[in-house]
């Protein structure tokens, strides 16, 4: 994968952690000594953000010896990044690069687990990533084999109940209005019941997003709308995890929408920084 975070963003990360130099390394007088640094997985994980981590090391003055790409699944104890250079440079990049890889790989690993739990089904992650971390979150989702559900409010039509609370006309009318105003877009409607799902599908919604409805309800919606031309895409959302992905797939769903990869512990990476 390519580097998604531009140099300016990586410079800003380094500046946050080392705004006025590394006091400890400088005071000990070891900054110029030759050093070597390695990153290894403490547990099985799917890598993400390794390209950005390597670039951080380079920006700090280190030299990358090897790095495995984002999307690579590795076992515990496998070394995936190695660098050398002045000790001061490697100390400067160490913690920022480690933390970036840990958080991104945590997202990628959880995304991959959901993807593997439901073979042949598209897993789409929502925009509910930590504010300010969209670029890295998107890369991590893709590294895990999932796709993005929507990148933001600007490019998709997704009608929530919070939108419908302000509408006075019937849903046939506003779905038709959306079709006229944005004819190249799919119309996605979030619903909270089987009855709502069927009604909006009959009114012409392209995608029915089921908010926290169980697999049995998803099956009921699919059965009730399969005769429509074309039938809508029925997509469970809210509460979709690796634990229930297979059940939704068995119910006939071919798209699962989830925020679960964004919420959980980071991956655990061991860093060894020592004299070369």
TrEMBL record:
Domain Quinolinate phosphoribosyl transferase N-terminal positions: 22-105
Pfam families in alphabetical order: QRPTase_C, QRPTase_N
Keywords, comma-separated and alphabetical: Glycosyltransferase, Transferase
Keyword Glycosyltransferase: yes
Top-level taxonomic group: Bacteria
The keyword Transferase appears for this protein: yes
Domain Quinolinate phosphoribosyl transferase C-terminal: 107-260
Family as reported in the entry's similarity comment: Belongs to the NadC/ModD family.
The name this protein goes by in its record: Putative pyrophosphorylase ModD
Organism for this UniProt entry: Azospirillum endophyticum
């Amino acid at each position: 994968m390519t580097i998604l975070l531009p140099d300016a963003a990586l410079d800003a990360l380094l500046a946050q952690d080392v705004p006025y130099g590394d006091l400890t390394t400088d005071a000990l007088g070891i900054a110029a000594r030759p050093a070597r640094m390695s990153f290894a997985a403490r547990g099985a994980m799917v890598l993400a953000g390794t390209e950005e981590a390597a670039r951080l090391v380079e920006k700090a003055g280190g030299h990358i010896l090897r790095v495995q790409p984002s999307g690579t699944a590795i076992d515990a104890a496998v070394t995936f990044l190695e660098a050398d250079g002045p000790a001061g440079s490697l100390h400067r990049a160490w913690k920022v690069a480690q933390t970036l890889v840990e958080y991104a790989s945590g997202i990628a690993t959880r995304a991959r687990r959901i993807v593997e739990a439901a073979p042949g089904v598209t897993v789409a992650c929502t925009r509910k990533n930590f504010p300010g971390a969209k670029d890295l979150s998107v890369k991590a989702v893709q590294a895990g084999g999932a796709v993005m559900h929507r990148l933001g409010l600007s490019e998709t039509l997704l009608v929530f109940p919070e939108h419908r609370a302000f509408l006075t006309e019937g849903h046939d009318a506003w779905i038709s209005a959306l079709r006229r105003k944005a004819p190249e877009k799919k119309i996605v409607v979030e619903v909270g019941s089987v009855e709502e799902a069927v009604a909006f599908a009959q009114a012409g919604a392209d995608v029915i997003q089921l908010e926290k409805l169980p697999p049995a309800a998803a099956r009921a919606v699919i059965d009730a709308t399969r005769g429509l031309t074309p039938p809508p895409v029925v997509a469970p959302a809210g509460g979709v995890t690796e634990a229930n992905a297979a059940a939704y797939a068995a119910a006939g769903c071919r798209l699962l929408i989830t925020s679960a990869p964004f919420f959980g512990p980071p991956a655990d990476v061991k860093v060894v920084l020592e004299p070369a």
